[in-house]
Structures are given as C-alpha cells and as structure tokens.
Amino acid sequence: MDEHHRIVMVGGGNAGISLAARLLRKKVRDVAIIEPRSTHYFQPLFSHVGAGAAGMEEAQRPQAAVMPRRARWIQGAVSGIRPEEDAVILDDGRRIAYDQLVVCPGVQLDWQAVPGLRAAMDGVHGTSNYDAALVPATWELVRGLRRGTAVFTQPPGPAKCSGAAQKIAYMACDYWREQGVLEDIDVYMVVATPKVFGMPDVDAELERKIAEYGITLLPSSRLVSVDAAACRLRLEGPTGSREIAYDLLHVEPQQSAPDWLKATTLPADDDDAGFVEVDDATLRHRRYPNVWSLGDAAGTSNSKSGGALRKQTKVVDRNLRAALEGRMPPARYNGYSVCPFTLSRGTAFFAEFGPDLEPMPSYPWLRMAKERRWQWVVDRHVFPQIYWHLILKGRA
Ligand SMILES: Cc1cc2nc3c(=O)[nH]c(=O)nc-3n(C[C@H](O)[C@H](O)[C@H](O)COP(=O)(O)OP(=O)(O)OC[C@H]3O[C@@H](n4cnc5c(N)ncnc54)[C@H](O)[C@@H]3O)c2cc1C
Q1: Which of 89, 172, 291, 296 has CB 3.0 to 4.6 Å from 80, enough for a Cys bridge?
Q2: Are residues 302 and 266 part of one domain?
Q3: How do residues 189-207 score in pLDDT, each as one tens digit?
C-alpha cells in the first residue's frame, strides 16, 4: 500500500468536503480526501449563471481553498475499490488503504445515452447547465435568442436536482419577456414524467407559470436523438415520435454512477445505474460495514440534491464516529430532499419532499408552492454564502 488512512473519502465535492470538515471539527484525525479536480463548484448556482443572474466566478473556488486544513488531499482519480482488501486504487496505480471508506464521487453524465447529443453540445446551439464548461454558453444562447424555437429537456431516471432542467426554462422565458421577444419564441419543455413534477400543489404552481410564459409542455416524453448539424431533435411521447427544429437546446443529460464504480462490487446486483448499495436510513453499506456513501453516488431512494445531502452529512458524521468507537449507528436519514424552483429571475419557491413525493416542509405553516421574492433572494444570495462559509466548513 502507498498510504493508509483511518478515513478515506472518494470525492471532494459537496459531500466529501462537508463531511470531512464535520469529522475534523469533532477531533477525528487522519482523514484523506481523494479528489482529482483543481476547481470546486457550487452547482446550484449554475442555474443562475445560465440565466445571467450570477457570474461563473461566484460558483467556483480553487479546490485547495475549500480543502479542510487538517485533511490530507490526495489529488488523483479513483479507478477501482477493493472492499475485501480495504483498499482504493487510483488511475496512476497508487493504492490507498483505509479503516473506514466514504464513497461520494457524484454522478456521471451519460451523454452517449442519446445519439447525437454530445455533438449537439459541441455545436453553437446546444448547451447544458449540468456541465460546468457549458454553463456560460447557456447565458450566451439565452441572451442571443430573439426569435425561433427553444427546447428544454428533463430525462427519465435518477438525476441530481432534476428540476434544474425547468429552472433555466422559466428564467430564460422571464428574460425574453423582459426583452419583449417571448412571443416570437416557441418554447418547449420536455419532461419524462406524466406531470410536470408530481406533487399536486407544486404542479399547479408550475403549470400556472408554464401557461403565463406560453410554454408548450410535453409530459411523458423524452429526447431520443439529435441531428446536431441540422439542429433537429427527435422526441418520443405518448402519441408517438416527433421532430423539432431548434435554435436553442438546453439538455439535462441522463445520469448514473461513474463507470468505474459500476464495475466494483459496491452497487446492488439489480441497480443498473450502479449506485452504492447503502441502507437508506444509516447510509452504511449493506454488505461492507466499514463502507459508507452519501450524496449523488449513494443508492438511496431520495431525490438527489445538495439539500438532501446536507441532512445525510449529519447522519454519516454521527454514524461513522459511532462505528470508530465500536457502537451501532445512532442516526437515521429520513429521505428529505428539496428543489428550489426559480420561476423568474427574481422569484422562486422551495419544493421540499420525501422519496414518494410526500410533502416535507421545513415551515409547515407556510404555503409551500407559492411564487415568492424572498425565496429567490435566499436561493441566489444566501445559500451560496451558507455553502462556502458554513456547509464546507462543517458548520451547517
Ligand atoms: C445545474 C444544477 C443545479 C442544481 N441545483 C441544486 C439546487 O438548487 N439545490 C440543491 O440542493 N442541489 C442542486 N443541485 C445538485 C447538487 O449540486 C448535488 O446534489 C451535490 O453537488 C451532490 O454532491 P456530491 O458531493 O454527491 O457530488 P459532487 O458535488 O458532484 O462532487 C463529486 C466529486 O467527486 C469527484 N470525483 C469524480 N470522480 C472521481 C474519482 N474517480 N475519484 C475521486 N473523485 C472523483 C468530482 O471531481 C467531484 O468533486 C444542482 C446540480 C446541478 C448540476
């Protein structure tokens, strides 16, 4: 083995950094974080950057600046995990041994799931807020469109903050309306689900905005191919397949666990998406008791989001420390998730829900699905500060 650590984190994103910071604050020593990137992103702000409501520099920091001071940063990419040997393999051949392992490398964007999609993203009319390199192009495309057709797609299957596909659509429409060009743009929103979200109150509020902006909603539909050169895309829906010529295409790609993670023994046999098989409540691996997972890579039943992860971090923090002391895991995750729906470039509401889309409001006395100014201010201005100064420091 090249190195041994008491706790090894695979991934220094939202999950890895915030959990490591919490553990170190509680005096747990010898925590290593394996993370290949030199830049750390606060992805929720990508929606605002794509809508011209924030600059990309606000959504990123050097990775070195967010690494907890007492953590050992191993800059490299994991290519395999051998839980039987308590070892992690890096793509440069290094082997890192662990006592406890936390697997949190996020998701992989499966561009290849739709033929022609990668080429469309490389073209001048395609973009996605799911790819950090493309986010600035979203705003360029939105700003540049004066007439034509704009298509926003949300895929089937597990995805991080899946509603982000819609947020950019509403904010773009608000900008086009402000510019006086909305009536000259045909806007399509393609969602894989039968309803726009799946909770009656939330659907009603989103449908109100969809009608207000004149968006054509295509439910139970999905993108099946793109001809990037001709700027044409094909959809499949309840009435068969149809082709649309586009001037702007914003895509949320299908997502799954990274291929190298799928190839390990950590996912359940029946999980094609390859996420880490953990107990939904304790977030401990079902077969390897010294392996934990949280965030987007965890095979939990909640909707994947940073808000879900914030709750999970507190659970893994307590349970992992108990495991180090030989105790049973005392904390339970309740499946909470949240999607802040930005309905314009100045209003939003937070949909808070459980694994079966049951309401889980933080403020039960407040009508959840109601367009509000202050919730946009919280999402755009307050959350980024909480993220950089509290969550990543293990304080929230
Ligand atoms: C456009 C967009 C909008 C969003 N909006 C919201 C929102 O409004 N609210 C909300 O709650 N959530 C939102 N999210 C989701 C939120 O950002 C994620 O759920 C959260 O970042 C998950 O954290 P994570 O640590 O699991 O994954 P990530 O933060 O993605 O971190 C994974 C880390 O693992 C590293 N990694 C990858 N491969 C390897 C490897 N082989 N070896 C080692 N490390 C590796 C990566 O470099 C990365 O740093 C949004 C996401 C997007 C894309």
Answers
A1: 89
A2: yes
A3: 999 999 999 999 999 999 9
